[in-house]
Amino acid sequence: MLILLGVAAMSAIAPASAQDDYTLFSRKAGGASLLYRGQKAFAYNMLYNGTYYWTSPDFRKGRVLYYGKGYDDLLLNVDAVRQDLLVRIPGSVVDKVLDRRFVEEFTIEGQRFLNLQVLFGEAAPSGYWAVLHDGTVQLLCRVSKTLEQDMDGRKHDQTGYDGPFRLNVYQVFTRSAAYRLVYPDGRIVPVRRRRDILRQFEPSLRREIRRHLRQRENVSLMSFEQYAVAALKYQDSK
Length: 238
Fold this sequence. Notes:
Low-confidence stretches: 1-26
Strand order of the largest sheet: 4-3-2-1-5-6-7-8-9-10
Number of helices: 5
Helix content: 25-40%
Distance between the termini: 88 Å
Shape: globular
Structural class: alpha+beta
Order of helices and strands: HEEEEEEHEEEEHHH
């Protein structure tokens, strides 16, 4: 009888304890508790160089438009291998994946990202796209990471990461970037080279832009991203 009473008492305590834990979690999560119900972030349980995150492992403050509702003051990062948006549970090191089907856009420390398949349909490019220029025509970039073998450490410059690089580690996450122009009518155009950008303009404006940017490059050579942004800004100024 005493044993039965003890079991009954323990069963009564356990739900109360669980309820207390949930209450504490909900209080910390506030109105964003819906965001923390997804699956846990994928764990890369291996030794590697570089990082699978978009830029660095640091989670930074941001905002998400999820299921049509905005959520502020979240700790966010992007798994650039799986193209997952990750949110860190407050007061922990547990990261959850936000269902990409319901993420329209988000910002991390002021950098805006778009989900083109939510905005334009499934035929649009997948993954998350950072907005590099938000003018008449948008310039977007998607960073992707790929796990590769690196037996001699030659892929250090391909990581896009400034963190430590260990020569005795033979797997590395390398970085690649894709670019798209998005027009007001919904057209999405891939661009890879400078001439792809210049082809978007009428011949007379193209000549102006080429001349303007050539003068700028007398000081220093621009990367593709810098060149594309400068060209689009010049177009917006006309």
